[in-house]
Amino acid sequence: MNASKRRAIFERFHEANPEPRGELHYRSPFELLIAVILSAQATDKSVNLATDALYQHANTPRALLELGQKGLERYVKSIGLYRTKAKNIIATCKLLLEHHNGEVPRSRDALEALPGVGRKTANVVLNIAFGEPTIAVDTHIFRIGNRTGIAPGKTPLEVEQRLLKFVPEEFKLHAHHWLILHGRYICVARAPKCGECLIRDLCEWKGKLVTE
After folding, report:
1. Is residue 52 flagged as an active site residue?
2. I need a labelling partner for 122 at 20 to 30 A (CA). Which of 32, 41, 142, 182 fits?
3. Which pLDDT tens digit goes with each residue over 185-204?
4. Sign of the torsion angle spanned by Cα atoms 112, 27, 16, 43
């Protein structure tokens, strides 16, 4: 895919949704961090149901530590891998208090040093909470990068690196959201809704269900 076609794709995303937002509920960088940790292999809807109740009672590192792992598990037990996630969250809260004055760090290395936080989670927090032009590659973005030809790659890291290289600078801040929302609702894994796709004429997927 050439540069002019990539630019046209992101111009259309921008025109259709100038200020895209993620679907996780949060009111602070800490609430976002916890929600993203919980969202691994889970839907945003299921996470929101859990955190809406949780954050009414505990939404700071100290409050979650006081709640304890078992107490936290009661709020998040409807989410997959909840025991492991609860354990990681409690350990993360402890590190935030011990090394970061209870604040979410703005550095990738510091974020990835927290239990339960990998590159994708760090990218989400850096992008949404701190306005960094990072692109977190989840299953949706990985699929779109390869399917459309925007940024093909064999691994999530390779797709991320190519997106950072190919996405025009002025669109990098919101590229993460545009691509995730497109993959979640239009360019779905099975039976993609090509007839509703605003970039179908620019997409290079040979299996398109609609041709121009």
Report:
1. no
2. 182
3. 999 999 999 999 999 999 99
4. positive
